[in-house]
Automatic annotation (TrEMBL):
Belongs to the ferredoxin--NADP reductase type 1 family. Keywords: FAD, Flavoprotein, NADP, Oxidoreductase. This is ferredoxin--NADP(+) reductase. Residues 6-172 form the FAD/NAD(P)-binding domain. It is an enzyme of class 1 (oxidoreductase). It catalyses: 2 reduced [2Fe-2S]-[ferredoxin] + NADP(+) + H(+) = 2 oxidized [2Fe-2S]-[ferredoxin] + NADPH. PANTHER family: GLUTAMATE SYNTHASE 1 [NADH], CHLOROPLASTIC-LIKE. Its EC number is 1.18.1.2. It comes from Streptomyces durocortorensis. The keyword NADP applies. Its cofactor is FAD. Coiled coil: none annotated. Gene3D superfamilies: FAD/NAD(P)-binding domain (3.50.50.60), NAD(P)-binding Rossmann-like Domain (3.40.50.720).
Length: 453
């Protein structure tokens, strides 16, 4: 092969961009070269960095600067506002590229099978995150009439949801939240936010820094019940072996022994409370029922048969993300992932030629953004191994310009990397007009117009 190896990556979030970076750093990039096209359903790149990270976490959004450096490379093209499989399908991709990597991530909420989950006032955390992050495909308004709110889960998404619900709109105004989100949060009635976890402090999945940031708001009083500070042998072992778990436990201990202050919004962190039912009246949430649990010696818990009904008007479940099934690819419904071996997609008992996965669609929605690099490296190594062994299928039309002609022939209004820079500058200009760093454009058409698509 004398021409560059052509690779399509479906999904331009961190997982897809890290895969592109791994290809650029490989020997094949030197000889015979590599040509990479990223296809993204949204008009803008960066996936959950743009639509899944809380707006008051600019530190995490700083990762975008590193991703920019990858996308600036001349071997990479971005095609935004291109949906798989509606605008371009697997057979189309195979006809243009030597290999296809799917990195579509996970945007939906994992189901929680308890009675009452369907009531009005019961929400998935991912839905709420998409709203306050200005995702183009969600409603522009959100009902924020509840004074007492429950958040189910003890991971960083639960913290983000609880923190945004407990903060004032003016606290979040300096961030990039869209105007509709600011106006919505100004109407927020929440005075108490309760976070529930079925296990103990040593098993919480919070990041230490994110947990401590809860206490930085002048409007949020974080409260931990001293009775929830409990450890068994398994918990002690976890603290001893896991530095982050130990730091989280220490922070919770410190909060449990201090006096409760007078900040206006209360944020309670409850442990050993397992949600078993959402109670309703006239189809709306009125309470959350939990069962008290206890440690069993291994760090796991068992029910005690002691139940509590908590007065709540809304419940947010933050129990994990779930990936959408990709047409023409196998899918494991239980895990929400595409079956694979080290990134090679497995259909039945055999690999699908030239088709790979990376990121959350590969391993499930676990780990931090940095863990995605290892995923990408493993997948790209398999792709290059298959190329060296002659296992990649030769595309029928490998010319780069054929892709543009194909999309234009289908009437797809696609954005480019240059278009992202225009949208980026537009959002910064909107922010500067109000003394803010940026104001995110929400509507898809507005994003397309600003990008010059």
């Amino acid at each position: 092969m004398t021409r560059p190896v052509r690779v399509a990556i479906v999904g331009a979030g961190p997982a897809g961009i890290y895969a592109a970076d791994a290809l650029l750093k490989s020997e094949v990039c030197q000889d015979p070269g590599v040509s990479i096209d990223l296809f993204e359903r949204m008009p803008a790149p960066f996936g959950l960095i743009r639509y899944g990270v809380a707006p008051d976490h600019p530190r995490i959004k700083g990762i975008v600067k590193a991703l920019h450096q990858v996308l600036d490379k001349p071997q990479i093209r971005l095609f935004g506002n291109v949906s798989y499989p509606h605008d371009i399908g697997l057979d189309d991709l195979r006809s243009f590229y030597d290999a296809v990597i799917f990195s579509t991530g996970a945007e939906a909420d994992r189901a929680l099978d308890i009675p009452g989950i369907e009531l009005d006032g019961s929400y998935g955390a991912a839905e709420f995150v998409s709203w306050y992050d200005g995702h183009p495909e969600v409603p522009r308004t959100w009902p924020l009439t509840a004074e007492k709110v429950a958040v189910l889960g003890v991971g960083n998404v639960a913290l983000d949801v609880a923190r945004v619900l407990a903060k004032t709109a003016d606290e979040l105004l300096p961030t990039e939240i869209p105007d509709n989100v600011y106006q919505g949060l100004k109407e927020n009635k929440a005075l108490e936010v309760h976070v529930f976890g079925r296990r103990g402090p040593a098993q919480a999945k919070f990041s230490p820094m994110e947990l401590r940031e809860l206490d930085h708001s002048p409007n949020i009083e974080v409260i931990v019940n001293p009775e929830d500070i409990e450890y068994d042998e398994g918990s002690i072992a976890t603290r001893r072996e896991n530095k982050q778990a130990n730091m989280v436990a220490q922070t919770l201990e410190n909060w449990a022994i201090r006096d409760v202050g007078d900040r206006p919004h209360k944020l309670f962190l409850h442990f050993f409370e397992s949600p078993v039912e959402i109670l309703g009246e006239d189809g709306e949430v009125v309470a959350l029922r939990t069962e008290r649990t206890e440690l069993d010696g291994t760090g796991n818990v068992r029910g005690t048969g002691q139940f509590t009904d908590w007065d709540m008007q809304s419940v947010y479940r933050a129990v994990g993300y779930y990936s959408e099934e990709l047409p023409k690819l196998p899918f494991d419904v239980a895990s929400g992932t595409v079956p694979h071996e080290a990134g090679r997609v497995i259909a039945g008992d055999a690999p699908m030629p030239s088709v790979y996965v990376t990121g959350w669609i590969k391993r499930g929605p676990i780990g931090l953004i940095g863990h995605t690099k290892g995923d990408a490296n493993e997948t790209v190594a398999c792709l290059l191994e298959d190329r060296a062994a002659g296992r990649l299928a030769e595309p029928a039309t490998p010319a780069p310009e054929a892709v543009e002609a194909f999309l234009e022939g289908r009437g797809v209004r696609y954005t480019t990397w240059e278009g992202w820079h225009k949208l980026d500058a537009h959002e910064q200009a909107l922010g500067a007009a109000q003394g803010r760093e940026r104001i995110k454009v929400v509507e898809r058409e507005g994003m397309l117009d600003a990008s010059g698509a």
